[in-house]
């Protein structure tokens, strides 16, 4: 595994995924290209395949059709080369390790020596603003702090591609908004390519350079909307008229192309 | 940034809580023991006064007074021998030696079996029925054969008690194997997925994820194994006729029961304490080694 | 038909292992001329098992009744004790460590005393041993099960203004059942073992344990092994009965299907 990566180029061509049980077509004909350093959000109602798509990119699920390449390599090769960092909705921290040792986990597996690991862990703790919490255990931290540890862990070995599956979904709105700002500032510093799955339209618009709108049955891309909001995004960005326009645009797309949307699915989108 | 969300008590308070709790617990135990002694004597008194014979006849032989039993500790069991308590302590050490050996070897075997089985469903289906079935075989019946077979194969100083250790091993490996397997299987599937994103090898996943996740289960098994090894050691001594241990003492005192019942009772009390002692040691070891979210201890 | 085949397929690896082990056993004992007195050939054991079946099975049944009686009494008392204790929270918390410590005591050491109480020849003495062996794990586990009801569920019941008894019936008991069955599985095996080990200290001539020990005493190990085989089968039978009951009672639980 090599170290700090140039941000990834991800290319998906006609990717499809059908799950044999129940014959569910989770993904159909997905064509997508991500430029290096982009922040792309996947949004859509439940069952539109956004999490599946994320897992296909991360080589955690094999596609039934189509090809994926990450920096010119196959998804499997990229995974083995350590090009990915993943953050799930649950922090999935190891109870028996301290915060510092949790962050050090991927570094241990890369075979870094102890001093190097310790230095990097300290960097990461500073990056996610948890300096001084290295010796705590996960259960002593709040949900938001645990997610920050998960992010620190995902970024520790500076992957080319960061995959995030509704990482802030379980948190309250205020914490979520604060973590959005933090994530953006981290992203500015590290410059990875990010694929971010979310249920929240405002979160998607706020964070991304592009928003990929998906719809279910079968899971497919409805449209990709470039977000031309000025950077760096701040608290004020959410109040700007352009923000409101983009959010409305996304919502309309979800509603219109979702002739297939059930009322409860629509209600689930914010 | 809300640092207030993290939980941390000042150091002084952190110590006092558990210490006070421990004292309260010890006091409760003492109270209960005294209550038991009281019940014993009460039962004895009621049954002897009324002459009831159900469920069994009560007299000084079947239920010796607690005080008689305690006195027996201080006196020699046979002429020209040291006090009973000294004799029993030597025998306890002998039996403890067998139990510790059985516990150690049995735990290692059990753990190894667990690790082996978690990686292969095929092996699980093939071997589990026999692992479970092994415990339905009354080991006491095989003990003489085990002794005759194993003894010659052991180096000199290990003979005799080594065979009993083998029997203790037999009783120990089972709970450890079963619980290790369950513990290793209990790893969070999302954590397994995480390890997959790191392209971790099976060996790495084992040691960095499965084994730490399994520790509560393993320790729960070790608590059972502690008792099982003592039981195995005592039972193993019976058919082998070993005089040096508690099993031998129980067997001997059983012969004299009608004359001197208190000696058998005294021996049993010591045996009980040995079992409890092993158990407590494992519990303390667990407290020292496992640092876990409080609700996760199995 | 498919399900039957799948079931057979599940048991296939175990069957293969059985064949391999028995085959190796037979082969090695023949090839190495292992003294018959130490480790009889499986074929010899089976033949003795067959020829002496008229004495083996009745003896097995006699001991099995002791085990069954002990199992029933011990488990029953254990469940009752746990229920009573769980009702009184403070007493329960104080007694729990006592029960756990008592579980750590080698009960089998008390076998001779039970013999002295109940006249070693009778079945009651062995039943008593089996009962005590079963009582403790069942009590400890049942108590733990009764105490492990989720607080949210209790809150829900209270919001319906349920009585304590209803809460007990609808929440605590179902939550406790998996724990109870775990304990019963352990107890079922212990009961049979306890009965046989108890017979070491003397027992009726009709009992299996006595038969095994006496055959072993005169070095008729093939007959002893045959007896052990019977004991093992009966122990497994009781265990399987408990597992089968568990499958029926705990249909809703994902864990029950894993044994």
Topology:
The complex is a heterotrimer of chains A (270), B (298) and C (259).
Chain A: E1 10-19, E2 24-34, E3 39-43, H1 50-57, E4 65-70, H2 75-80, E5 84-87, H3 99-110, H4 114-127, H5 143-155, E6 161-165, H6 173-190, E7 193-198, H7 201-207, E8 210-215, E9 220-226, H8 241-256, H9 263-268
Parallel strand pairs in A: 3-7, 3-8, 5-6, 6-7
Antiparallel strand pairs in A: 1-2, 1-4, 8-9
Helix pairs in contact in A: 3-4, 3-5, 4-5, 7-8
Chain B: H1 11-50, H2 66-74, H3 84-118, H4 121-134, H5 139-150, H6 161-185, H7 189-197, H8 202-240, H9 246-255, H10 261-289
Helix pairs in contact in B: 2-10, 3-6, 3-8, 3-10, 5-6, 5-8, 6-8, 8-9, 8-10, 9-10
Chain C: H1 2-31, H2 42-51, H3 53-87, H4 89-103, H5 111-118, H6 123-146, H7 151-159, H8 164-199, H9 208-217, H10 221-249
Helix pairs in contact in C: 2-10, 3-4, 3-6, 3-8, 3-10, 4-6, 5-6, 6-8, 8-10, 9-10
The Rg value of chain A, from CA coordinates, equals 18 Å
Radius of gyration of chain C: 22 Å
In the CATH scheme, what's the topology name of the domain at 1-83 and 211-270 in chain A?
Rossmann fold
Counted beta strands of chain C: 0
The total domain count of chain C is 2
Described by the principal axes of the CA atoms, the overall outline of chain A is globular
Order of helices and strands of chain A: EEEHEHEHHHEHEHEEHH
Report the principal-axis shape of chain C. Answer: globular
**Number of helical elements of chain C:** 10
So, the CATH homologous superfamily of the largest domain in chain C?
MetI-like
Distance between the termini of chain C: 23 Å
Query: What is the typical, i.e. mean, pLDDT of chain C?
Result: 81
Highest-level CATH class of the largest domain in chain C: Mainly Alpha
Can you tell me the CATH architecture of the largest domain in chain C?
A: Orthogonal Bundle
Look up the CATH topology of the largest domain in chain C: MetI-like fold
Chains forming the largest contact: B-C, 60 and 52 residues
CATH class of the domain at 1-83 and 211-270 in chain A: Alpha Beta
Main sheet properties of chain C: none
Which structural class should the secondary elements of chain C be placed in? mainly alpha
